[in-house]
Specification:
12 helices; 265 residues; globular; MetI-like fold; mainly alpha
């Protein structure tokens, strides 16, 4: 028994080290006072963090607004879809569930290329300039963010007994009142977690977005990739640390209020 317990402890420590050691090394690199990454550094500085906005401000704005729009549309689609799949039995239910979750199984490059080709075909037949537009990027991101919202909404309802909704209905509550006062509050953790995961997936997407950008409109991951083609300095490490701090802080803040572990565990 002691051997198994010690082995489990060693494995747990190894897992923690594998997660946090790269983060610590990235933070260490981000404070090097060098224009080229050399070890050991001649000094340390925080000036790379001050260069994030001047260097990548436009890309940050594009990624942020595209992610917010994708989250809003994904919630409008995913929350009703999650309720319908969890609470109702109808013909074609499995097909609808498969269709909604299918983008998770398709490589992002294939989705991006397909959307780009479709946009070009539409332009040829309608003369609508949609390729390289923010609207097309948001629509494409909705395709990969909606499955996360649906899955997490389904998980939140799976942990909630439908008896409360049936009781409210039996006491005379209208369907919309049951939805607003019983169902949606029970789904709060799933909705918040789905929106957060959708934002992260959209904000960090690279492989699909490569086909959807245009001159003058690029996202942060692509801007970072282009920067790395000509620079090898700690600025990219500073961006990575800033993103980890932002996402980690958001997760900790939300978890205090909605207990995300109930639906993502």
């Amino acid at each position: 028994m002691n051997v198994r317990r010690n082995l489990a402890g060693v494995l747990a420590l190894c897992a923690v080290a594998m997660i946090f050691l790269p983060l610590l090394l990235t933070f260490y690199l981000s404070v090097f006072d060098e224009t080229l990454i050399v070890f050991p550094p001649h000094g340390y500085t925080l000036r790379w963090y001050a260069r994030i906005w001047p260097e990548f401000g436009a890309a940050l704005r594009t990624s942020f607004f595209a992610a917010l729009a994708a989250v809003a549309v994904s919630l409008l689609i995913g929350v009703p879809a999650g309720i319908g799949l969890a609470r109702y039995r109808f013909r074609g239910r499995d097909a609808v569930a498969t269709m909604l979750l299918a983008p998770l199984t398709v490589p992002g490059i294939a989705i991006g290329l397909g959307i780009f080709v479709l946009a070009v075909l539409i332009e040829e037949h309608t003369e609508w300039a949609i390729s390289g537009s923010l609207a097309l990027m948001v629509a494409a991101h909705v395709l990969i963010t909606t499955p996360w919202v649906v899955r997490l909404c389904l998980a939140s309802l799976a942990n909630h007994d439908a008896a409360a909704e049936e009781a409210a209905a039996s006491l005379g509550a209208r369907p919309l009142a049951v939805l607003w006062r019983v169902t949606l509050p029970a789904m709060r953790s799933g909705i918040v977690a789905g929106g957060l995961f959708a934002f992260i997936v959209s904000f960090e997407n690279l492989e699909m977005t490569l086909f959807l950008t245009a001159p003058g409109m690029t996202t942060l991951p692509i801007a970072v990739l282009q920067y790395l083609q000509y620079h090898i300095d700690p600025l990219v490490a500073a961006i990575a640390v800033a993103q980890v701090v932002f996402v980690g802080g958001a997760l900790m803040l939300l978890d205090r209020h909605v207990k995300l572990a109930q639906v993502v565990a």
